[in-house]
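Researcher: We're teaching a course module on how sequence relates to structure. For the next exercise, students receive a sequence and then see the predicted structure as tokens, so they can try to spot secondary structure elements on their own. Here is the exercise chain.
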Amino acid sequence: MRRREFITLLGGTMAAWPLGARTQERIRRVGVLTGAGGPNDEEAPARKAALEQGLERAGWVEGGNLRIDYRFPAANPEATRRYAAELVALAPDVIISSGTASMAPLLQATRTVPIVFVNVADPVGAGFVDSLARPGGNVTGFLQFEYSLSGKWVELLKEIAPRVTRVAVLRDPTVTSGIGQFAVVQSVAPSAGMEVVPINVRDPAEIERRFGAFANSANGGVIATASALAVVHRDLLVALASRHRLPAIYHRKVFVVAGGLISYGPNLIDQFAHAGGYAGRILNGEKPADLPVQAPTKYELIVNLKTAKELGLDVPSSLLARADEVIE
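Model: And here is the predicted structure for the students to work with:
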């Protein structure tokens, strides 16, 4: 057989083989570093499902052509640094990060692995990206919300509990977002006839002590600003508000499910779906520097009528009509 005929025959035979027999497709790898709640958080399965659905829409399937490695530091700074280094050492093709606190350790560990963040309040001010429209570098993602949303908490608390004239603002002053949210609440509260009292959320014993002191005076209410620590301590915060009969507003549904009065904020599960989509686009060859940082597109208002009744509050029908979910 002549050489040309042999090559032609060999080529035809190889074309008839299944693709998997000719070449083993490389399984791509995604790391996920999610700060608050841990794997036992009741929203964790929904976030995981949304993330994987976003990836699947881009053609990437967990257990098929994709492996996903999860780490849950639960707002512990030491664990966050350790897990960030672990994920980078696994040489993933992209990392998805939740929360501001996770970003600095990741960027200390890598400036080359693409990172898609969710639930970050001020990525430009924190130095994670150059701008929202053109992030530059290896990072892009989805904003937690603009600080102006914090003023909405003041309005909603006054609407559901008109007698509130003093408000304890739970915040984490060690992160940029904690400072920014508190500043907005402080600027808006006087127009609603409210005096502001800050309470730090880093130490449970301090939270309980400050809550008790604040509750000694009448007409109090609570605004729990968004932070990983607030989520970690959510059962304590909700229990203290109930014990001292203080109407409180939160930034996420999980607080209201746990017995909190009302919440208003972006839908984090929706953000994970979008993050999965961005990660899939990066796996398909796009660069994070070319994907603009986006603001939330879905917000939700949740009201717990049972808690309102326990506090002796008559929830306005206009507020109930606007609610995305009412827990009875």
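Model: If you want an answer key for the exercise: The chain has a mean pLDDT of 90. The longest strand covers residues 28-34.
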